[in-house]
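Weekly puzzle thread! Below is a chain. First person to post its structure in token form gets bragging rights.
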Amino acid sequence: MRTTTDRVRHATGFELIGLALSTPLAIQVFDMQMHQAGALTVGLSLVATVWNILYNRMVDGAMARWLGRLEKTWRERVWHALGFEAGLLAMTLPLIAWWLSVSLLEALMIDLGLVLFYVLYAFIYNWAYDRVYPPPALVRAAPDPVTGRCGC
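Winning reply:
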């Protein structure tokens, strides 16, 4: 499993690079003012950072338990990115509607635009991060000779 320090480094890098890319994009695509886009993307970034740490901890735990590994296949990376964004969408939709004083439908359109960007970005970032900081190999305990159950 990854350490807490590694998870914080991962989430912080993800959000800082994401902010640098998404704020100017939001200004252009959604015709927002700098203060609107900046405050919104920073707020969303804070929510996403906490979600990133929690989500990746849950995914790593599930992968370790069910698959006995942390290394993701390309298909698992796609599901990982989509799952992250779906959870984040559920949390951020009301925030966007409130901050921009728009309907939930308008907020959904804005959020979906950001999601399209971030799904691709998350896929690329996580692939690159795993190349620079490979996940640790799992050390699995041998099955108990009496019960046959793994002490993992």
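Puzzle host: Confirmed. Bonus trivia for everyone else. The chain has one domain: 4-132.
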